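Each record in this resource describes a single protein on a pair of labelled lines. An example record follows, reproduced without changes.
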Amino acid sequence: MRSIHIVILSLAAGLAVTAARSAEAKPAVRILATGGTIAGAQSSQQSYGYKSGSFKVEDLIAAVPNLSDVAVLSGEQVANIGSQDMNDAVWVKLAKRVNELLATREVDGIVITHGTDTMEETAFFLNLTVASDKAVVLVGSMRPATAVSADGPGNLHEAVTVAASPGARGRGVLVVLNDEIHSARNVTKTDTTSVETFKSLNRGPAGLIHTTQIAWFNPSDRKHTTRSEFAGKVPAELPRVDIIYADANMSPALIDASAKGGAKGLVIAGVGDGNMTKPAIDALARAAKAGVVVVRSTRLAAGLVLRNNEVNDDQMGFVASGEFTAPKARVLLQLALTKTRDSKQIQRMYDEY
């Protein structure tokens, strides 16, 4: 009888060790929640409007069946706001927390739930400031959690799957929605309500995900995360940079007001290849001479703003944004200004990132 007990105890111990090893084999993914539509609630399912950030991170995890099969999960609430209210203070807090977590052995990857309106800007900020090659994945939804056919749970499952994938390492910060994986540098929101809103118009997606199967495409050839000069150097505050939208008969008044009002940098969402009226260019030239760094971008969703094309950047002391849309050009300029006000050095950053 004693020998039978010993055998049973040995088998039980073996099963426990096997279960522990199986659990250890799953990557540890921390979910950081910031609010957004993915955590939003309608007053009724017939209601068009909704309140962002109505649910907490625990609710989001519980809403996804079998999510714990993908990774060992943990969660924390960093903020609970609509992404229209995303701000520099939350960016700084989020970047510092991501760097703290990824520096430990206890976290293999991070998923950040976020509203879609400014997701591309938060993702790009993290792409420049995260000092790790571990996966960081932003995810959101276009329909609130209470909607019929809410897209949040499926998106979250795919985001955790991507964050747990060894193939995600070293690719920089990623954005996952609607079965597509995008590099933070390249992605932009293109539609106000469609679930197919996120696109990388110049370069295409970084990969596709179907259920749990991932097809990776070519990684980014630009500096990010561990290769970034901003990696791990999260400033306590970011300088003010304003975006000004160009149009026909553009007045210099907003440019003058912004420069006089304390902006350290200006990004112009110009027409076409970053162009604008002569009075506006003259106002920008005055601002540049006064020490305000000026970046020419475009109000268009795709294409490049080339240096010295139509506007003499060398003569005016301007920076050309290259592939960056105005919102992302602003993010890079905010970080660049924490290091230098030299337009030539800042142009180098736009060319390298």
Notes: Residues 259 and 287 are 6 Å apart (CA to CA). The chain is about 30% helix and 20% strand. The chain has two domains: 24-227, 241-352.
